[in-house]
Amino acid sequence: MLIFKRASDIRKYLQKQASNGIAIGFVPTMGALHPGHISLVTKARAETNCVVCSIFVNPTQFNDPEDYQKYPVAIEQDIYLLEKAGCDILFLPSVAEMYSDGAGDLPHYEIGYLETVLEGAYRPGHFQGVCQVVHRLLDIVIPRKLFMGQKDYQQCMVIRKLLALTGSNTELIISETLREPDGLAMSSRNMRLNEDERKLATGIFEALSFINVHIQPGDLSALLSKAREILLEKGLQPDYIVVADAGNLQVIDTWNGATPIVALAAAYMGKIRLIDNLILRLNFA
Ligand code: AMP
Questions:
Q1: What is the pTM of this model?
Q2: Ligand 1 within 6 A of 175 CB?
Q3: Which residues have a Cβ under 8 Å from the Cβ of 197 and sit 6 or more positions away?
């Protein structure tokens, strides 16, 4: 695996690959890699000829300074896992490399409604930061396909919008969420949970699964109250647990039984904020 730290070097290298007809697959990450990240690399391996992964803990997308400072870093282990998974190129830029003009004059993206709900509402500025870094990375890598996880459902929708706003030809491939055996969605932040918190954190998946099993057309308020109780019983402090239109993320309180929907939750276990979602079945009894 080749490792690049400078944008100009990797850009030059990848432009040569692309001019030889090689399809570049790109997996952007913040490192502290787990099997969920690796599943994206494996998918990229299967669908493209040159797999590029980036590891960059992007300061502009953190609304909580402590979350940024304590974000886990495990670069040696990450390199080992990426090589084992057959990743061709790792891009490992510094903050100065990514934001050479400083953080003062960053572009603003017209994300619209998506920025006002759920993660957008609870993490002001987060999706602007995500767009800033992904736009920069896409300009450097110019991938044919971009691989992202459904785990960050709203982020995938924001990136789809970014691709449209910037007129990009890159195709977004959304990959399913990898889970621990007890259902907890794999996440780099899980490393920061202590043993007891780790056991209780599974409540977020239980609450979403409860919605998936029990949803019926009509008013959803009783179902959502019960799901919220499941979170609270496990000591999870919810920011939100909602059902939304899977296509546009409009939060709904009544379901017509036909619109594809997704249940999304964000909750704190101690100081660690966890998110998860499930696309809900439509074949209800
Ligand atoms: P992150 O390092 O958290 O920014 O994640 C990098 C990419 O990996 C994003 O596209 C995430 O959606 C994806 N990802 C994170 N966790 C999982 C998971 N458990 N399963 C599949 N993909 C994931």
A1: 0.97
A2: yes
A3: 235, 269, 270, 272
